[in-house]
From TrEMBL, chain A:
Alphabetically ordered keywords of this record: Nucleotidyltransferase, Transferase
Top EC class, one word: transferase
A Gene Ontology molecular function term of the record: DNA-directed RNA polymerase activity
Organism classification: Bacteria, Pseudomonadati, Pseudomonadota, Alphaproteobacteria, Rhodobacterales
This enzyme's EC code(s): 2.7.7.6
Anti-sigma factor NepR domain mapped to chain residues: 12-45
Pfam families hit by this protein: NepR
Domain of life: Bacteria
Protein name (record): RNA polymerase sigma-70 factor
Length: 53, 192
């Protein structure tokens, strides 16, 4: 029968769609709030560990 | 250590992984506001624990591990809210008909969102983010065999769910199929 064939086609189709779902999110611009958060954390580090550890 | 000779700080590399973290978070939460909250929490936790990161190891896998641990611990804490979100998702599942008759990404995302979270995460990590089975297993803290079986079950379930929307194998091609979809994804074969 064509079961295995079907399964391969489905697997391929599913992977394509998984990648599309993932990629569409990857392609989004990262909102500014994340950059602001990273900047804040860096700033805290600079203040906190200014004299090494 | 002087600033100008300091080795590459893995903290500086976090920014490169933000898009992938957001994509992974979205596949777990199925909600982009919740995904962004999750990523923010992950960044803060990662920052506090950077001394535990081994330089030279896989930063993305390390961040993904923190992200999913945060997700699951939030899930336990906010069980009721999450169930409400699930309910809201379920009620919108069959709302949108197709415009072009093909297996549109929106439909895939809808059926994908119905999978158990362990299967979603395994499928996204290996099928989409490009992680190996080993990396995914390590990220999720389970055996490789567990990841493989989650992926297999997830694929089988996706194929099953997608097939319900689908008369001739892979693509939605006719109005009979749309009628099935519009009727709410019931198990119903429409011979014609």
């Amino acid at each position: 029968m064509t079961k295995d064939n079907d399964k391969d086609r489905w697997d391929e189709k599913i992977d394509q769609n998984l990648r599309k779902v993932f990629q569409s999110k990857l392609d989004e611009d990262v909102p500014d709030k994340f950059m602001e958060l990273l900047a804040q954390l860096r700033e805290q580090d600079d203040q906190g560990s200014a004299h090494g550890k | 250590m002087a600033n100008d000779v300091r080795p590459v700080d893995p903290r500086e590399a976090v920014v490169e992984h933000l898009p992938a973290m957001r994509a992974f978070a979205a596949s777990l939460t199925r909600n982009s506001a919740a995904a962004d909250d999750l990523v923010q929490d992950t960044i803060v936790k990662a920052w506090k624990n950077f001394d535990k990161f081994k330089p030279g190891t896989n930063l993305r896998a390390w961040l993904f591990t923190i992200l999913r641990n945060t997700f699951y611990s939030d899930l336990r804490k906010k069980k009721r809210e999450v169930e409400d979100v699930d309910g809201a998702m379920a009620s919108t599942l069959s709302e949108k008909p197709h415009h072009d008759g093909r297996l549109a990404m929106a439909d895939f995302e809808k059926v994908f969102a119905e999978l158990p979270v362990e299967q979603r995460e395994a499928l996204i990590l290996v099928g989409a983010s490009g992680m190996s089975y080993e990396e995914a297993a390590e990220t999720c803290g389970v055996a490789i065999g567990t990841i493989k079986s989650r992926i297999n079950r997830g694929r089988a379930r996706l194929a099953e769910l997608l097939e319900l929307n689908d008369d001739d194998g892979l693509e939605l091609t006719d109005s009979a199929t749309m009628a099935v979809l519009n009727s709410g994804m019931q198990v119903r074969k429409t011979g014609h």
